[in-house]
Amino acid sequence: MINVGILGATGAVGQRFVQMLAGHPWFSLQVLTASERSAGKRYADIVNWRLDVPFPEEIGDLTVSPTTVDAVKECDLVFSALPADVARGIEEEAAAAGVGVCSNASSHRMDPDVPLVIPEVNPDHLGLIDLQHERGRDGFIVTNPNCSTIMLTLALEPLRTFGFSSVQVATLQAISGAGFRGVAGMEIYDNVVPYIGGEEEKMATEPRKIMGSLNGSEIEPAPFTVSACCNRVPVIDGHTLSVWVDIDRPIDEVKEAFRSYAAPFSGLPTQPERSVEYLEQPDRPQPRLDRNRGNGMTVSVGRLREGLRFTALGHNTIRGAAGASVLNAELIYKKKYL
Amino acid sequence: MINVGILGATGAVGQRFVQMLAGHPWFSLQVLTASERSAGKRYADIVNWRLDVPFPEEIGDLTVSPTTVDAVKECDLVFSALPADVARGIEEEAAAAGVGVCSNASSHRMDPDVPLVIPEVNPDHLGLIDLQHERGRDGFIVTNPNCSTIMLTLALEPLRTFGFSSVQVATLQAISGAGFRGVAGMEIYDNVVPYIGGEEEKMATEPRKIMGSLNGSEIEPAPFTVSACCNRVPVIDGHTLSVWVDIDRPIDEVKEAFRSYAAPFSGLPTQPERSVEYLEQPDRPQPRLDRNRGNGMTVSVGRLREGLRFTALGHNTIRGAAGASVLNAELIYKKKYL
Amino acid sequence: MINVGILGATGAVGQRFVQMLAGHPWFSLQVLTASERSAGKRYADIVNWRLDVPFPEEIGDLTVSPTTVDAVKECDLVFSALPADVARGIEEEAAAAGVGVCSNASSHRMDPDVPLVIPEVNPDHLGLIDLQHERGRDGFIVTNPNCSTIMLTLALEPLRTFGFSSVQVATLQAISGAGFRGVAGMEIYDNVVPYIGGEEEKMATEPRKIMGSLNGSEIEPAPFTVSACCNRVPVIDGHTLSVWVDIDRPIDEVKEAFRSYAAPFSGLPTQPERSVEYLEQPDRPQPRLDRNRGNGMTVSVGRLREGLRFTALGHNTIRGAAGASVLNAELIYKKKYL
Amino acid sequence: MINVGILGATGAVGQRFVQMLAGHPWFSLQVLTASERSAGKRYADIVNWRLDVPFPEEIGDLTVSPTTVDAVKECDLVFSALPADVARGIEEEAAAAGVGVCSNASSHRMDPDVPLVIPEVNPDHLGLIDLQHERGRDGFIVTNPNCSTIMLTLALEPLRTFGFSSVQVATLQAISGAGFRGVAGMEIYDNVVPYIGGEEEKMATEPRKIMGSLNGSEIEPAPFTVSACCNRVPVIDGHTLSVWVDIDRPIDEVKEAFRSYAAPFSGLPTQPERSVEYLEQPDRPQPRLDRNRGNGMTVSVGRLREGLRFTALGHNTIRGAAGASVLNAELIYKKKYL
């Protein structure tokens, strides 16, 4: 078993990490960090468990550590659910101390030698880990993309063979994407907020890196543009995307690409039966009904029609955050980087 | 005073017509029609008033008529809030009987000799009324567009001067657009439905007719395409649109076009101070906060940025339905077609 | 394995029955009935699956039967998810034909010889099955209570030892309680509806029968009154109850009764670890966080304080409907009435 | 015109004060206070206007002051929308400096010489102002009750003639009652929170003071008890109450008391046509449809039935907060305490 920890284990993403790592067949959860005032207490006593799945009682007895490199330096691997501003320094320190860091934070995503990975899309980018080692890092940092970027990029992956140069996407993003207290009830109830800070910029840059080519020590960004309009909607979990892509092929041929898509690997514990699933009903996918497909790890696609337009949907705190990091870690382990 | 009636006065749009015509300075509401089983009763006794504005008590005493041409043939003008399948026949009969019909139904919108009008955009299309008279119709039919089309087209009007050929729009549409019982609570709560029957087709065709040129007796559709992705979201009133349009001009110049836009007429009672209002805050417009601008008759625009992308928003049952018809009727009256 | 069927398998409660019976260790689901126009088709082809759990594919191939006694007469047991008006006749016919009927419908709940059962509260009432047999019924009818009644009565059961004569309860009931299309989005969003037809009457009578004494062939209603105020609130699943009961004992003693409560039986597959669970946090139970405790079969209680007041909560379509019937059937089977 | 100010003008209640005082016929709004970092700026530049009514442009030009006694000492009257902990000191200082204070804060509500007033219920309690003067306060402090207390007490006022000794009430309270950021979206969406800190205690004590008798310099609390269960529900504005009261009279007689109730004064600008309105429909009042009756100043009552049970509803930030204070101020002015 690999000893793992979670940096920032009490927030919305941190709790999802706990849920996904409790009982994990490869990873043994040993360390949970939180703010200074929670340190030294039982996790069960300080966490305000807000998920609608049962609290994993066996994790509750862990003693919470402060969010420092000392707390995690004995781990083989840590998952980071820290906010970007806090994450930058501590993730670097942990990696320097020999720890593998799988981070959901945005701080290092665009660093040239840090892989930004969706296992189904760019597993080869993990090769940058070697570069990090060469440059003197004992451990490594691997990041997963922004939640909306993951849904978009995974939905585009089956279409890569057709080629495309321009993507437009309007998002309808869930409340949980902003953390437990990020969106006030008065802000979002009976309302739409057509703005999410930094989100459109991430969607413009991250997919190009992920679908880019690793040439030696450099990633050449993929040659397409993404223009995004990001909206927050009154939905608890599940980001819905209306996507246009400039592919000029018959609908049926493109639909078949979705239907026949299979992940380029198998056997990872958190991997869903289908990473991308095409739903045939005319009014699907829908967040309340489809976000939990594949235990929240499947991106559902539907409504492909002339344009070329389609709808994509995924669970933002599972496939779009904690689950993304855990799946990355499983791939890293399988590829023997640990 | 012009004697007016409402065809289908008990539904979501019918009630908005009642609200907007009660106390109207030019129009005197005399006739309300509903289903056979309500006929003969007081309106107050059969309407299940569901608006969050007070019931206009003075209208409550009107005796409801059945939805037949006999009921409205003494009116100068009737507003139609009927469903499309019922509307077609009775609107034609009423127009044949010399009544002016302002319809929110979709049945006749694309008829070549029926104007599809947004007063600020194509007031000249009312010239088709003369054509209807020449062809033997004593009265006339004038239609207003689909709710989402109105928000989009009115938001595009200030940009007409720049020229454009391609529009993409993702809608986030309110529940009230489907009528009082059109969307079940279980369908839409904590959910998004990425499909609204017929809506994308209407958005593809209606704006081109509205912004088209009336050449003699024919309307030449405007030479642009509209590709829409329509979504239902958990919002009571107010449609939000994420819009892309292929205008290659500096942002400030386009923004100034929005800011300086003024309607080409004035003095209509239902006309808002600003038909299109550009909001400067980075996170606006929002349906709960902005749908009631201009008493629900203003289309709010914001977030103009490179792309060219922006957000537009309007009240779907006021500017997008009943208010649209009433404003059309006011223009018709002012232009002396009555 | 016992062969079972579901009367009315496509609605909100019918789908929950399918979910709970798919893969059941004792019951083999063989028959699904629906309206005439679905008969003869594959269940997967006609059901509009609206639950947020995956569709059980192995059930999808069953051919749907019309809702007639012929369709179910080969079953050992049928579960009824029919509306009350349809249920009355067909349930009687099925029971006459030798089938055991476990019904969620209200039609027969107050029949003197029909047990109205919550397994934890009045398992002995199943003795009325013998009376039904004596009176010539080859099969039997056993009913479960109304959803709100179940939450209330199960929460009162640990307090039975203290005695009480007066209960007041305000309910905050979920949308799903009215079926998939029972509550319109426009009715309930940003709203409360302080009226649910027939609900307060059921809460006044059903708990008294359930907690009553079976004396020979008659049930003597328990000597307390229930005064209910029933409200519908914008929650998908999970009924919350504010309860007052006239027990004059120290809070700690009553709290201990909740904490130490254990069901009077064990080993039923659908039985939760704890039928009643007392939550210690000051702001619990809450429907989104607690409705799925015990796979939706646990009634959560909290906030016990002077008055005597407390909050109770349960999943209305699981513990309050389909799960209630399935648990009844398991008890019936274990007690060898099948 | 009376010069007035608002202490804490940027929050949910502060903005309602601005809305209600803009254009007030008796009061001229001169001073707005906010936190230190907003001081010196235009109100329009610092307020994040979150109400769904238009921003009163004429107020936007006022320069914001810091929340100190100096800022308001030239006012005849100030309205306090401060949080309780901040309010206590500054309200006392302002009153000492000769200013009349109408406070929505809870700090001074239970002070023996401070009137806790609902104009329709206990206008005579304003006599305590004289007592405050005698004790050396140049100005005065008058408070209005907690929002839920106001709905309850105003609904009980028409029943005072019958006498009662025991009231039980379950509340379904709106999100806005906790301020703009008081309730997170993740907390309340698809959820109920059965706990609101301090609310049940306020409902137990405040109604007894309000309906108590002023004997000389003391208020004798009314001899009844209130037992409350307070719940937060996903509603933007409008508190709904399920109420039991131990009155043993025929329903029709009690209903008539509601129907014939009239406020004991008239001519106050903010006073609604009916302070208490009995709604005859079986499923009313409902927050979305009835909260704006009487411009948000009417308490609606309905569903009176045996028990004695009924439903009451009012707008929590208008009748339950800002409007309550403004109506108090109008009564104070009319009674010449200013």
From TrEMBL, chains A, B, C, D:
Positions of the catalytic residues? 147 (acyl-thioester intermediate), 239 (proton acceptor)
Q: What is its EC number?
A: 1.2.1.11
Biological process terms from the Gene Ontology for this record are: lysine biosynthetic process via diaminopimelate; methionine biosynthetic process; threonine biosynthetic process
Q: Which domain of life is it from?
A: Archaea
Residues spanning the signal sequence: none
Annotated Pfam families: Semialdhyde_dh, Semialdhyde_dhC
Q: Which SUPFAM superfamilies match?
A: Glyceraldehyde-3-phosphate dehydrogenase-like, C-terminal domain (SSF55347), NAD(P)-binding Rossmann-fold domains (SSF51735)
Query: What are the alphabetically sorted keywords of the record?
Result: Amino-acid biosynthesis, Methionine biosynthesis, NADP, Oxidoreductase, Threonine biosynthesis
Domain Semialdehyde dehydrogenase NAD-binding: residue ranges: 3-129
Q: Which Gene3D superfamilies match?
A: Dihydrodipicolinate Reductase, domain 2 (3.30.360.10), NAD(P)-binding Rossmann-like Domain (3.40.50.720)
Biological or metabolic pathway of the protein:
Amino-acid biosynthesis; L-threonine biosynthesis; L-threonine from L-aspartate: step 2/5; Amino-acid biosynthesis; L-methionine biosynthesis via de novo pathway; L-homoserine from L-aspartate: step 2/3
What GO molecular functions are on record for this protein?
aspartate-semialdehyde dehydrogenase activity; NAD binding; NADP binding; protein dimerization activity
Q: Which PANTHER family match?
A: ASPARTATE-SEMIALDEHYDE DEHYDROGENASE
**Which protein family is named in the record?**
Belongs to the aspartate-semialdehyde dehydrogenase family.
What is the protein name given in its UniProt record? aspartate-semialdehyde dehydrogenase
Species of origin reads Methanofollis fontis
* Primary gene name: asd
